[in-house]
Request: fold
Amino acid sequence: MSPLHYIPNAAAPVYNRGLASFRRMFRSSEAALILLAVGAGLAAGALMIAQNRAAHLLQNLIYGLSGASLSAAPAIEPARLLALPIFGLLLGFGSRALRGGRTPVDVVEANALHGGAIPLRDSLTVCAQTLLSNGAGASVGLEAAYAQAGGGFASLFGQWLRLRRADLRILVGAGAGAAVGAAFGAPLTGAFYAFEIVIGAYTPAAIAPVAAACLSAVLLVRLYGIEAYVVALPGARAITTVDYLLYAGLGVLCAFVGIAVVRAVTWIEALVRRSPIPEPWRPALGGLLLIPLAMITPQTLSGGHGALHIDLGAEVALGFLLLVLVVKVAASSISLGFGFRGGLFFASLFMGSLVGQLFAGAVAQISGLPPVDPSDAALIGMAAMAVAIVGGPMTMSMLVLEITHDFALTGVAVTAALCASTFVRETFGFSFSTWRLHTRGETIRSARDVGWVRALTAGKMMRPTQTAPAATTIADFRRRFPLGSTNKVVLTDPAGRYAGMVETAKAFDPAVGETGEIAGLAMLKEVALEPSQDVRAAIQAFDLSEADYLAVVDAEGQVLGTLSERFVHRRYADEVEKAQRRMFGE
Reply:
């Protein structure tokens, strides 16, 4: 009988056998995975609606808006702005209890480093923090909570079904993308958000599940009665070659501003961490700093949905637009730097619309250049700024298409978005989400799956090895390790610590006397691997040392085993090939 032949346990409960069969169906069937993605999309849409309603209800109760958008309010009573530090205090002390002393895993980190696994507690923490922050009026968007809720639900259900790593990552991307698509009523935007930002690649295996999830989420939202996010343009105008060049320049300008925003958030965050302010009190202090900015203009509060429509639909003075941009950048930087939780997705769209309108005003002052329509420039600026901060050039280009239904303008948006993306990648190299991970010591630049690299460590790949005391004589060494018994022997000092490595053949060289110690033939005395080093670090160590074998030692220098360069390269190649097969659904 084959060792792989499976004999079901007849004594096992019928429920357990049925559950196992149910799980195997989702692991083996592409159609079942698509069906699962539809369920994840419906859940993401429902969770988006619930969070949106909860945040707006909180804003209405605090600021007495009567259903209007917070950032579109003409003015806010100063006394109501005290909610910012009060809720900041609640957020600060509540976050410490919810986090449990560690940083929650978001959807990008989960897909890049953890194979799509997101603990339920982390999803609840991120959503609660974002709802409190946005509901209180901090200058952050709800998109982070939407994506976390959609991706977190998909991850939880996928882990319960014990999906394969690749399928779980796809399902998490589908859930997160569906939530973002539902927020804008834009399924293409949600799908590309999943591909570019959460999954990290356009994979054939992911197209159908992601598309199914995004469509189901958007349909649910529309059935609920929420209209798609649409921007009505005053009139279509022919797009010329000069327009492409001008808007490419706008894309580069937005890249400059986007990098400045991310740097400002990081600088304030680092400054606050070095300060003596206790962590739970930091959001409260940030709330106090937001009060004078909100008194200048309420457009600085929340994500800026209502403010964007106000500034697009009316002829606003350039000086006021510049003031709003500066104050909005300051408000978002303070909000995130002082510990409020949320995303910069919609805030970046609002900032981009302001930069676009300012760009159009500046072009109008330069003789010899054709005029630029402020509304067009605002939409192009939205796409370029969002790409510079959040990433995903096709995501933002599809957003322009779906909110304007203007294909000509979308072509220009693609140009500006690609210019912004290229400039940011060449000069900065990170999106906002991956930059935050970089400041915590991670090196990832996208959600592309590198978790398997971290898991493939020297400690897991090493093999047992022969050891000998470094004080052993050549004659004793020859008797103990005759030719052909082993290629390498690891030497240890009297305390058992690593003392180098010797090739067995060298000990049998006729020119080597029998009375000397084997330590005289030792090499690589200062070079060894740690068991926690991943496969890439191991490959780099082999390249630098030009060795065929390296010892693996612990923190105290005790020898754990050895690793060969050939074996490391073979394992790495095997894992890369498996990752490629998973990407194409093979």
